[in-house]
Design goal:
single chain; mainly alpha; Multidrug-efflux Transporter Regulator, Chain: A, Domain 2; 3 strands; about 70% helix; rod-shaped; about 325 residues
Length: about 325
């Protein structure tokens, strides 16, 4: 076929698989203008128009709008440039669709109300920067202006929620709960009290860090007591409490007396808010980290044991 061959709209439709109506529309908007007209006034198209129409169909199948296609055909932008930009746009659309799917699955699982569904959708579609800002504002508000444990605050700042591009419904639920928790005035006040207590302890000379070894000792001793079914008020529990108060006395360089036990109990009551543990649990779910073992039952047992045996200890000593 030589370059002088001309096609009617009908012939062009048969060659491309497009409808006559579609080709006429592309002609009317100037995307694929006719090459010539027959003596009777019918539109005619040459081989270049056929190639142009094939490119239009391909780009439309890829989702490009006619304005962008016109720029490509007029050589204002190249096909690779358009492809790269369109691929980036599709990435955003795919991420949005995945997020919507996760929200819908979470809604179906929870049986959420319309208000909860709206909140879940709004929070889930926040950008990574917006999520980090929300948590950073919470940390700044609760620890700001205090000489709290720097290592602990740094750990909180480094542990930011990173909702994946294709989250599971559980991760969406965890993020929504975390966002609500950090905006809860009562929880903020509880964390602020904890920070103020840390600052007061540091002012009195406690600058020994997070006491990981001490926490592990508490977990180990009381974990075994819990497994054995030992009640915190029982006689057997007294030995566990004594062993741990001795460990506290050694760690902090204090006498193992009734005053120490009151001090430990105050620490447990301030730091033992189960919502603080929930905060770390939710972060782990969102980020796909291993969920840490909960210490709330351990601290509750220890606090009960201290209340039950501190009077006995004072009398013995």
């Amino acid at each position: 076929m030589d370059g002088d061959t001309l096609f009617t709209i009908g012939a062009l439709a048969r060659r491309t698989g497009l409808t006559v109506k579609t080709i006429r529309f592309y002609s009317d908007v100037g995307v694929v203008p006719p090459t010539d007209r027959s003596p009777a006034g019918y539109r005619l198209y040459d081989i270049d128009a056929l190639a142009r129409l094939d490119l239009v169909r391909t780009l439309r199948d890829l989702g490009l709008d006619l304005a962008v296609i016109r720029q490509v055909l007029d050589r204002e932008v190249s096909v690779p440039e358009v492809a790269a930009a369109h691929a980036d746009a599709l990435e955003v659309q795919i991420r949005t669709l995945r997020l919507r799917r996760a929200v819908l699955r979470a809604v179906a699982k929870r049986g959420s109300t319309s208000e909860e569904t709206d909140l879940m959708h709004k929070l889930a579609k926040l950008s990574d920067d917006e999520r980090r800002r929300l948590i950073t504002d919470f940390i700044d508000d609760t620890f700001g202006g205090l000489d709290a444990n720097a290592e602990f605050v740094d750990m909180m700042r480094s542990a930011m929620p990173g909702l994946p591009d294709d989250p599971e419904p559980e991760q969406v639920e965890a993020w929504v709960e975390l966002a609500e928790l950090t905006q809860d005035p009562d929880f903020r006040a509880a964390v602020r009290r904890m920070a103020e207590y840390q600052a007061a302890e540091r002012a009195r000379g406690d600058r020994t860090g997070l006491h990981h070894d001490l926490t592990e000792a508490v977990r180990d001793h009381i974990g075994r007591a819990l497994e054995a079914g030992i009640a915190p008020a029982s006689a057997q529990a007294g030995a566990v409490v004594d062993a741990l108060t001795a460990r506290y006395a050694q760690t902090f360089g204090r006498a193992d007396d009734a005053e120490l036990r009151r001090w430990i109990l105050a620490r447990l009551e301030i730091a033992g808010d189960p919502r603080a543990e929930r905060y770390w649990h939710l972060l782990a779910v969102i980020n796909g980290w291993p969920v840490p073992d909960g210490l709330a039952p351990v601290f509750a047992w220890f606090a009960a044991g201290l209340r039950a045996h501190s009077g006995q200890q004072a009398r013995v000593r």
